[in-house]
Amino acid sequence: MPTMNNMPGIKKWLSWVGRSGQARNWAAAGLVALSATFSLLFVDRIQAPQYVGGGATNWSPPEVVSPALADAQLPIEVNERIEQWMVRFTTSRQPAFEVMLSRGGLYSDMIRGKLSDRGMPEELVYLAMIESGFHTDARSYVAATGMWQFMDPTARAYGLRIDQYVDERRDPVRATDAALDYLSDLYQRYGSWYLAAAAYNAGPTRVSLAVARYSDGRMGDENVYWEIIDHLPKETVQYVPKLLAARNLARSAALYGLDVTLEDPYVYDLVWAPGGSSLEEVGKRMGLSDGRMRELNPQLIRGVTPPGGVYPLRVPVGQAYTAMSALAGHDLRSRLADD
User: CA-CA distance, 23 to 331, in Å (whole number)?
Assistant: First the structure.
């Protein structure tokens, strides 16, 4: 079973708690939750993973595993890198982590449904959290954009529209479809979801070079990621450990003392709107709060539907006919749209 001696992250955390009188009170409750979860995952009948070369041996969830992890589709494993992120997400980064988990209520059901339809691990939903915190307007210093942080060339290669009116990298639905297409292609290439995730983050060229040089080109095995991890870019080294740490914590949030209030799901009706329709004006005519139409249509970067023809506009559920009335002043008559 895991002990404090082979969990240096826990030891550092306890040392910090020992120096902070204010921290000791809430730390006690956190340790109770932490130990309770480990007792579920590592009961006497389960052989704990052993650290080997920076990774951990995989094990299948037996009947006595925590119910929250019993349906996990990615390997259940614990190693120092994963444990370090579990500690960070429940200490120094806990407030931000709770916000991300809460925001996940917007899109998690939609993403999980699409993953399930494709037969892909539903835990991959946490890649969107790691990439952007589930923010559709996220933009990195290298111009990766949207919830799934697509670069322009990759986005276009996977069918996303990017022009002066529309940037579908910001569209949570269209970008999710493209991201899952990309991840599926990467999995077909590597036969490993860990390597697919690493390639999604760093690019397939870097991952393929690392596999060729440091794992004799072996693929189709999740352990390969742990073998090459020290030869990947710094950000990618943390990528899969963050994913697995987030998965472990999110499935037992209350047990870890995490305060998570899920936001309402992203749902909508569709109408065909004439080109040049202003989101602000349509929202006012519908009596919506400021910014509501932009929240539903984040891909419309200029706040108007693109000129020429009609465009499928997202409106609050149950308000399609109200939206059609609001759009009735345009030359082109609006009508209900199919997604």
Answer: 64
- Show Cβ contacts of residue 65 under 8 Å, excluding neighbours closer than 6 positions: 40, 41, 46, 76
Type of residue numbered 60: S
Residue 64 has pLDDT above 80, yes or no: no
pLDDT, one tens digit per residue, over 215-249 is: 999 999 999 999 999 999 999 999 999 999 999 99
Report which DSSP code applies to 49.
Answer: P
- Any idea how long the chain is? 339
Q: Which value, in Å, is the radius of gyration of the alpha carbons in the chain?
A: 23
Residue closest to 313 by CA, chosen among 296, 290, 328: 296
CA dist., res. 15 & res. 100, Å (int): 28
Residue 115 in tokens: 């993953």
Q: Where are the alpha helices (DSSP H) in 234-334?
A: 234-250, 279-286, 292-296, 320-326
- pTM: predicted TM-score of the whole model, two decimal places: 0.77
CATH 3.40.50.10070 fits 80-256, yes or no: no
CATH 1.10.530.10 in the chain, residue ranges:
80-256
Beta bridge partners of 133: none
Query: Which tens digit of pLDDT belongs to each residue from 239-278?
Result: 999 999 999 999 899 999 999 999 999 999 999 999 999 9
**Biggest distance spanned by C-alpha atoms of the chain:** 73
Calpha distance 296→279 (Å, rounded):
10
* C-alpha dist (Å) from residue 292 to 42, 278, 295, 303, 321: 47, 13, 5, 11, 17
